[in-house]
Here is the input.
Amino acid sequence: MRRIEVVATIRDAYVFAVTHLGGVIGLIWVPMVLATIMGFFSLQRYYNDFIDAMAGGNVAALGPSMLMMLGYLVAALLLYAVMFVAVVQLALGARTAPQVAHFAFGNLEWRMFRAFIAFIGVVLVLVIPAFVVAQAVFAVASARLPQAAGPALMLLIFYGIILLAMPRFFVLLPTIAVAESAPVLRRAWMLSAGNFWRLLLVLLAIFGPILLLFTGLEVALSGHAPPPAAGSTEEMQLVAAIMRARDVLPLISGLGFLISPLLVGLCAGASVSVWRALKDEPALDIAV
Here is the structure.
């Protein structure tokens, strides 16, 4: 069982992302523009419909915007598959940066998309039973717990499961989808054995600064927002929070677009570095 070097992997990820930033931008800017535009208008409609539904007491009115959000998520996964295939190939030395732009969708992109869907499926398989158990526990102990404890517990479970699943599955997913023909998640699980904590540190080094940036921005923007009115209900506070999210959506969308090349470059660089360190493990000769 091989062990990855945490510091070396983090260094490889940042060196690749910084030194090839121009090439990464050239490879992903077209699908990233599409994803950003679709995300902005989908979220804007959802926020507006949510506010109207809460004001009118008609939750069913959210149906069309929910369908639009679902369509956006599928389209976004397709576009991110295009981005990750190209950038992983760049990290592997299998392609060069384009002169102007790049957009392609073939067998590798389709395989990457299916791997993303499979990863989401694994997360849901873990999250849904955990939510059911948590709701049952909260229903029994609700008399002794504050009302806000239920949503907070659900959020904690969700992010906890994400944190558990990403080191064993997501880190190696992009490179295995591009460079191998084995079932992606099974191969990622086999290769990452014994490296959970090391891979978790790598993920924290990649996503931690971005998360801190967005958290700090959210706190700064919330500081300028008026406090909830005295005696306001939870429903009113929720609507106020959605309104604030709608107001800062252009800024968040623009910032997300700007940092996407760095984030995709870091993820691809780390994935390729980890795969190169662990690829001596026997590969499965099973086509997806």
